[in-house]
Amino acid sequence: MFFERPDAGETAVLVHVDFSDEQAREDPGEFLELVRSAGAEPATLLTASRQRPDPRTFIGSGKLDELKALLGAHQAELVIFNHGLGPSQERNLERELKCRVLDRTGLILDIFAQRARTHEGKLQVELAQLEYMSTRLVRGWTHLERQKGGIGLRGPGETQLETDRRLLRGRIKAIHKRLDKVRSQREQNRRARSRAEIQSVSLVGYTNAGKSTLFNVLTDAKVYAADQLFATLDPTLRRLEIDDVGPIVMADTVGFIRHLPHKLVEAFQATLQEAAEASLLIHVIDAADPDRELNVQQVDSVLKEIGADSVPVLKVMNKIDRLDSAPRIERDGQGRPEVVWLSAREGQGLDLLHQALSERLADDVIGFSLTLAPEQGKLRAGLHELNAVREERFDEQGRSVLDVRLPRRDFNQLMAQLGERADTYLPKALQEPGEW
After folding, report:
1. Are 353 and 340 in contact (CB under 8 A)?
2. How many CB atoms lie within 10 A of CB 66?
3. Could you please report the per-residue DSSP string of 18-34?
4. CA-to-CA distance for 283 and 430, rounded, in angstroms?
5. Which three-class secondary structure state does DSSP give residue 322?
6. Phi, psi angle pair for 283, to nearest 5°
7. Is the Cβ–Cβ distance between 307 and 282 less than 8 Å?
8. For FRET with 234, which of 143, 175, 183, 317 sits at 20 to 30 Å CA-CA?
């Protein structure tokens, strides 16, 4: 990675400021989880209250003196802020504190750099890091003067900073091209699935809500799952069979977080596009989290930013084992499944989720009985191949009596392949008006 941080395990002093503006507030508990996920060792937390950030040092001179004392007392070499810092604020703090300063965005980028495993994931993280660091390069090059040549070659030239920025722009442009290629490949795959009429479902939700655990138990995948923030970074696709629907493609995506930096959303556009193009979103929510409503709002905000706010949503309230609650389905006014309560870790309520997915994804499912003569074996075999036969028995004349249930679309396609009319076999109540 271009801008990877040093090895983890550094002792850090944490800084959290409470602002009067509710929208600007961050969660100190979540901040602590982020720091631990990055591998740092939190020594102490310095808290402050302000109306607005100090333009020079973010926290003001009094708290700056306290911060210096805490650094000396704990022999810490790193300060991490639970807020976004401007480039000049970061430089001023490092000059005053004589140590490295990291803000919330830099901390999240560090975690992403550790978690990325695929080529695409590493490209996305590097792009976000380069975009973030491009405004902060000046702090590393302030001691360098303009480059000068010998006699006849003197002139203003370009500073080392300008050279570095030019190289950065070149690298950013190259990564954008490679990610555009990835995005194009994903789009081709989605078009192929669309032509095959395979529906896709994307898991979305706040980080550490249990998406990967649910994904693993549903699809028998082996995606890394842990009780930590951003355990999953790289997208994973798996095939899943759903009753009355057939095969679907399920995608596990990166978790969202409050005030997710805009550059990260841009960098992960290729991955998040899976959610925007899905037939259905499963919004996984930690039912035991006291801030779950705020987390839901944050996820909705990111979905709107990536253009996925119009995709149908099925909410899953996960971790009910921590609430001593029973698995259940909540339905809307039309009787459609709206919320499924379950525990992915304990395997409770998974059958209800399958039922809800079947109801939400199945379009115009028909069920009827069919009597077939021995010479109609092709139709019988086709229905068995579609897994549409619920029960089969034989009458006294040796004919097959099938109880079938399948999407109308699949039945019409099978009839077209056999060169027969669908209304020949359907009861009148199931025939479409144009077939009468």
Report:
1. yes
2. 14
3. EES-GGG---HHHHHHH
4. 34
5. helix
6. -90, 105
7. no
8. 317
What pTM, to 2 d.p., does this model score?
0.69
The strand ranges marked E within 346-386 are 365-372
**HSE of 273 in the Cβ direction (CA atoms, 13 Å)?**
17
Q: Does residue 82 contact residue 26 with C-beta atoms inside 8 Å?
A: yes
SS3 (DSSP) at 105: helix
Distance of CA 358 to the CA centre of its chain: 23
> What is the arrangement of strands in the sheet containing 389-394, beginning at the earlier edge strand?
365-372, 400-407, 389-394
Tally the residues of the chain.
Answer: 436
Give kind and range of the element (H or E) at residue 417.
helix 408-418
Determine the 3-state secondary structure of 229 from DSSP: coil
Question: Which among 92, 96, 93, 69 is positioned nearest to 80, based on CA atoms?
Answer: 93
d(CA 166, CA 128): 17
Q: 431: how many CB neighbours lie within 10 A of its CB?
A: 15
Residue 316 φ then ψ, to 5°:
-120, 115
Helix, strand, coil proportions of the chain in percent (round to 5)?
A: 45, 20, 35
- H-helix segments, 9-118: 28-38, 61-74, 87-97, 104-115
Per-residue pLDDT for the chain (436 aa), expressed as one digit of tens each? 434 444 445 889 999 998 877 666 777 888 888 888 888 889 999 998 888 899 999 998 999 999 999 999 999 889 999 988 888 898 899 999 988 898 888 888 888 777 776 777 788 788 888 888 777 765 444 444 444 444 444 445 556 666 777 788 888 888 888 878 877 777 777 677 666 567 889 998 888 888 888 988 888 866 555 555 554 555 678 888 887 777 888 888 777 777 766 666 766 665 677 778 888 999 999 999 988 898 898 889 888 887 888 889 999 999 999 998 899 999 988 788 999 999 999 999 999 999 999 888 876 677 888 888 888 889 999 999 888 888 999 888 888 899 988 777 778 888 888 888 888 888 877 666 544 3
Q: Which two tokens stand for residue 268?
A: 């992960």
Other Cβ atoms closer than 10 A to 156 = 8
User: Please, what sign has the CA dihedral across residues 287, 290, 295, 297?
Assistant: positive
